[in-house]
Specification:
single chain, 225 residues, SRF-like, two-stranded antiparallel sheet, 6 helices, elongated
């Protein structure tokens, strides 16, 4: 699908083409006023004079147009003219904006040129064709680069110094037992295990004179060798 052809904004010399364009754009103009009034909730009115109409086109109606015009005229002059521009002021603003863009491009190109000359100096080539203004520009750029480098070095040193001065949290220390303590604990474990074995296995055979209600004395239950 082909895009819409860009229309050149210029006076249409042919009467028929001009009238056809007027009728088509008149409807679009009214439609746009209605849309901006609904979408943005702002009061809008329009008056359109033309040689093709016996009466001017007024939107939305004459009473609303009169009310908005009266309200506009009753506003303070500073507020009323704050964003109002005529054709001359509009062109002046556009020229100022374009001049700012041009100055920005000139500055960028000048910086690139100075950087190329600096690279030539580092390569050992002589600076030919550079006037006093160019040398001053190069001097300013070199000083600015040195200042930026010194600032970065200082910032990194301060950061490293701050990291070194931060208190380090030591890991929890585990107290190692001495050799005597380890041996003592091992002996206690062994004695405890042996006592358990002794209690479970040998107690019924060596109770001596302890009476037993069912079998009398335990000694009577010892089997002969």
């Amino acid at each position: 699908m082909a895009g819409r052809k860009k229309v050149k904004l210029a006076y249409i010399i042919n009467d028929a083409c001009r009238k056809a364009s007027y009728n088509k754009r008149k409807k679009g103009f009214v439609k746009k006023m209605k849309e901006i009034s609904i979408l943005c909730d702002v009061p809008v009115c329009g008056i359109l004079y033309s040689q093709y109409e016996s009466r001017p086109i007024v939107w939305p109606n004459p009473l609303e147009v009169q009310r908005l015009i009266t309200q506009f005229r009753n506003m303070p002059e500073d507020e009323r003219n704050k964003k109002m521009v005529n054709h001359e002021m509009f062109l002046k603003q556009r020229i100022e904006k374009e001049q700012e863009k041009l100055n920005k491009l000139k500055k960028e190109n000048r910086e690139k040129q100075i950087r190329m000359l600096m690279n030539q100096c580092l390569a050992g080539r002589p600076l030919t064709g550079l006037n006093l203004d160019g040398l001053n520009d190069m001097d300013c750029m070199i000083k600015g680069s040195l200042t930026e480098i010194v600032t970065q070095i200082k910032s990194r040193k301060e950061k490293e110094l701050a990291e070194m001065n931060q208190p380090q949290v030591a890991p929890p220390q585990v107290l190692a037992a001495t050799t005597d303590q380890n041996m003592h604990a091992a002996m206690e474990t062994q004695v405890f295990d042996q006592s358990n074995i002794y209690t479970k296995q040998t107690v019924p055979w060596f109770l001596g004179d302890v009476p037993n209600q069912q079998f009398g004395f335990v000694d009577d239950q010892i089997p002969p060798l």
